[in-house]
Amino acid sequence: MESRRTQLSVTKETSDTPITSEEWVMAWAVDATTGQPRYILELGEDNRGGQCNCKCPSCDQMLIAVNAGKTVWKRRPHFRHPTGAAREKCVIVSARKAVDAMFARQQQIVLPCRRRSRELEGLSGRYFNAWVEQSAETVGITDCTFEDKTRALLTLNDGRRLLVQLVGRGEASNGGNLDNGITARIEIRADDPAMAHMAPEDILSRLELSWSQGCWIRHWSDDALDVDAEAQARAQAAAALDWIEDDDLPEDLSPAERRETLLHREVKAILVRERRIRVPELNAIVDWRYANGHVVSKCWSQPAEEITLSSVKLEVHLGRSVPDVIATWVTEDGLSHSLLIEVTVTNPITGERIERLSSFGWPALEIDIGRMGGVVNREEFTRLVVDEVAGKRWLYHPTLEEERSRLLAALKADEAWAVEVEQRKQAILAVTATDWANRYLDAVRRRWREQSLFGDQLPDTENWRQSQADVVEAIHSLGEHGYPATLLDEYPLRRVIARILSFHDGTGIEYRQDSWGIINAILCDVAEARKWHTLYLIALKIYPPPLSDVHRDKVKAWRNNVVKSIRHEEDTYVRETTYDRMIGLLFPEMRPALREPFGTPLYIPERERDDDSWIENRTDSLDQVSEPRSLPNAPHNIDSRLLDASGEAASQGKSPILFAKGYAGQIEGLSVEQIVNRLIEIGVARNKWMWS
Ligand SMILES: [Zn+2]
């Protein structure tokens, strides 16, 4: 076994009661012949005085053993220098000698535990600490030899040797000079001149106390412990991605640059291992300001997706740029695509760098470690790089550029279209609705003239196509003017218009019969078709056709039948008024009659009217022309009261007409009809039977 030495320094500890030089008493000296320590009480009478053969271990003067061998004394036995009081240094050296002697007598000592720590600064500037410990051990002393006046060499029972240095007052510890690479050194706190007069037992107990409080200056295992501690600290730093083990990087890189490089390598390693990366969504938004100042925007987006990678390369030189990582993948169409990945650690990426990366025309993705809140471990870093999109953003993406161009083109086209539509609309509105109505009727007539030449076949002539196109244009234009013209050329409205137009023109339009033939056709109407009959009766009044007496009587009977039905509140002939305004535009002569409520849901039978004067001479509304009516200055509070009351009636299941009959009795100046009309005007009721 290799013999190793430990140096033990015994340094002074502060004494509560410092002794003066006059009180210094030496109980210890060394044998002048053997150099062995001698305790005064071990000397017999024969060795008293100058016979002791003892010398001062410090100044080598022969000493006088005062009161040696006495069992009773006034002044305790001690060694005295012949010249008088011992010098301070002699007392201290004597005390050390005593300690040395005690080591030789000590059977067992406990070596304190040894802790070693290593602190490592990571590349990020963060510190990593590791501690390793050699536990305390009990060892036996087999031998003690004195190296010189201040050092004792203890040989332990396992062969190791422990060097003990006793440092007295006034002497600095200079243990560093004693290093020879394999010397362990322990520093314990023991003193002191007082030891010079202590009994062996006192010294032993004091030494033991000092020893247990001692601490290592050096230890046999220090080198191994240091290596261990450093390895642990490095492992911690490496786990936090803050250390490069195999540092093949240029010398002039700063720690921050080294860490960036480390993280770039880590990203590459992760991508090589995982072969996939989740990339964030793409969003393109383009604003466009119309010439009229209106701003519109269009957007396009593509959701986040995971890409399966085919290859990953680190820091490839591309022209003057070196992207951190280049990842490549192949799409289903067999085309290969590349993605540049920038890893940002602390400094934000500059606009110039983004521009340079964009110049390749490949998507460039930034992974910002800084946004992860500082230190990450390997596992977190892997998740960040592969699965997360929170720390990623597109620095550039060619698809975004394409989509922005596309959106801009679409916005411009939209504006051009909007301008065109607006111009067309203005052109339409420049022509009055009455003119469009006339153009419509004219086109219908031309279309029929062309059609009548071709029997039941669809005429494929220029005239026919033109008239059809004119019909469509007129319908569209009437719509622009706010008329419900969309279904004008569809059945049943087309047939209604054709019949009225036939009476108006005195000749069949879309009918090959004369007026009576058309009337006969009307009389054959069933179900819903009869709801238009009031219109025909109005038209026959205003555009009377030449009829025989028999036919005129038949028309009169039909009219009476319709009037009677309406007065009986049957809904067979009650006409929805949706198209009345438009029919009035097409046939202005019919307008006054169309305004009459008789034959419409607004009609209230005479017997229910309170105000008889108001309906005077109105025996047959279809014969009459009168001005439209409205409420006589209905104040707003009347409306609100009407609303409240009607709401209550509706909740009780009453119809508008039933409510109006009751309400007319409660309120002054309003007739049942006025109340119903008001309810319809303010939008509460659809007609006298139905609430809105
Ligand atoms: Zn001396």
Number of helices: 18
In one word, what is the shape? Answer: elongated
What structural class do the secondary elements suggest?
alpha+beta
Helicity range of the residues?
A: 25-40%
How many β-strand runs? 23
Domain count? 4
What does this structure look like?
By secondary structure, the chain is an alpha+beta fold. The protein folds into four domains: 1-24 and 85-243, no CATH class; 255-403, no CATH class; 426-623, no CATH class; 636-681. It has 18 helices and 23 strands. The strands form seven sheets. It has a seven-stranded mixed β-sheet. Helix 4 (255-274) packs across helix 6, helix 8 (433-452) runs antiparallel to helix 9 (462-480) and helix 10 packs parallel to helix 12 (533-542). The two termini are 111 Å apart. The model is unreliable at 1-6, 9-19, 167-183, 609-621 and 623-634 (pLDDT under 50). Bound molecules: zinc ion.
Break the fold down into its secondary structure elements and pairings.
Elements: E1 5-11, E2 28-31, E3 37-39, E4 54-55, E5 64-66, E6 78-80, H1 88-105, E7 108-111, E8 114-121, E9 127-134, E10 137-146, E11 151-156, E12 161-166, E13 183-189, H2 200-212, E14 215-218, H3 222-239, H4 255-274, E15 276-279, E16 282-289, E17 295-302, E18 305-308, E19 311-314, E20 325-330, E21 336-344, H5 351-358, E22 364-368, H6 378-386, E23 392-396, H7 398-430, H8 433-452, H9 462-480, H10 493-505, H11 515-523, H12 533-542, H13 549-567, H14 580-586, H15 591-595, H16 636-651, H17 656-666, H18 672-681
Parallel strand pairs: 1-12, 1-13, 21-22
Antiparallel strand pairs: 2-3, 2-4, 5-6, 7-10, 8-9, 10-11, 11-12, 13-14, 15-18, 16-17, 19-20, 20-21, 22-23
Helix pairs in contact: 1-2, 4-6, 8-9, 10-12, 16-17, 17-18
The structure holds zinc ion.
